Amino acid sequence: MTNKKNQDLMDKLVSLCKRKGFIFQSSEIYGGINSCWDYGPLGVELKNNIKQNWWKSMTQFRDDIEGLDASILMHPSVWITSGHVESFADPMVDCKSCKMRFRADEISGKKCPNCGGELTEARQFNLMFKTHMGPVEDEASVVYLRPETAQGIYVNFLNVLAPSRQKLPFGIAQIGKAFRNEISPGNFIFRSREFEQMEMQFFIHPNEDEKWIEYWKEERMKWYLSLGIKKENLRFHQHDKKELAFYAKTAYDIEYNFPFDWKEIEGVHNRTDYDLSRHTQATGKDLSYFNDQTKERFIPYIIETSAGVDRTMLVCLVDAYYEEWVLNEERTVLRLDPKIAPIKAGIYPLVKRDNMPEVAKKIEDKLRPHFKVFYDEGGAIGRRYRRQDEAGTPFGITVDSQTLQDETVTLRERDSMEQVRVKIDDLVTILNKKIWGV
Ligand code: ATP
Prior knowledge:
By secondary structure, the protein is α+β, with helices and mostly antiparallel strands. It contains 13 helices and 23 strands. It has helices at 4-20, 41-60, 76-81, 84-87, 150-154, 157-164, 209-226, 274-283, 309-320, 356-367, 381-391, 401-406, 427-436, and strands at 23-25, 37-39, 65-68, 89-94, 101-103, 123-126, 129-132, 142-145, 170-179, 194-204, 234-238, 250-258, 261-270, 289-291, 296-298, 301-308, 321-326, 329-334, 345-349, 373-375, 395-399, 408-413, 419-423. Strand 14 (289-291) and strand 15 (296-298) form a beta hairpin. Adenosine-5'-triphosphate (ATP) is lined by residues 148, 180, 182, 191-192, 195, 197, 264-267, 306-308, 310-311.
């Protein structure tokens, strides 16, 4: 549960994100719109780095997963077949006095948590956003903004299978926006109404489901650890019978210890043959798979790994946030893993004279094709370091008077604040090693 200290931490993080240009409230100058967020210069870099890291781990570093980018608007029947039109709903209650709306499972007692007023009976509230396609706004033109990216993968199963010449087991990965008209959005970017998902659907023989769910559970946990997230802040939660979706056989959530509680960041689910069977029944298109060695035909089971980009980003920020005392001065530092840090290195002339800015600029030109770097000559060197500590920049390169004599610079590490002298010519190799380990 959220206590004062944890609330303070969230408030500080939200304010740092605004101040440094990670995350802004959407349409802020109009007073903002609830539960939508804009990613600023540092935010979009961090977000892209997380997505790229996931994308490569799925589609580059292994040969059994193909990528896909399906459209957000799909045939409305997809959402009838998937069960979303009928049952993608949260039970909600309204307060008869203050008119606030709450998720029935999130309130205890029978009174309004806001004003103590009387509540209505719980009603189902469909979470899908509707819009219309074409010039006429009637029932026939209704389309939905997708509430998950997964359906785009299922309906393209055969389209991907044929050209890629994959054999089972194999997967399809997709990153994209999803929309849910959440009743209680909140906790910053944890629950919003427009968000991004990174989903991978792995198609397998039904007899192998237990092996593959175990495999993907472990793989996905390893991925968070590879982003530098602390092990003690991650855990699995297995769905019990009450929580399990009606089509799922087994389901695990990966949870993170957020300041506001342990909460889901990713689902690893055994969805059985539900999705492909349903789409086969609805369309008459045979989505079964033929194994030409065993001559067996069957509808594949699906193991799904479904992660939120925004939630992962919040995990990275919370896990990296530190306040510490250094030489009687407090510093705030984001200890982001160098792989995902928005800016990899700050470049600083010690003073704004003696040719130091020119030399530093040359170093900037040399590094820019390899890394996102930031040149800064404004203010005392300590202040410049602190500004980049707060931005999560892992390295600082400083040009001083010795540089002018022997072409070396100091390389400062954000976390230890240690400084070593290195040759300018070795910077690319050293940074590659420190960031990527190669
Ligand atoms: P919750 O119980 O928190 O509503 P869920 O079980 O509905 O989540 P899934 O449908 O399994 O979530 O979606 C997979 C992932 O997508 C989640 O683990 C989360 O990372 C992300 N996600 C889902 N809903 C949201 C949202 N409203 N805002 C941000 N991310 C979301």
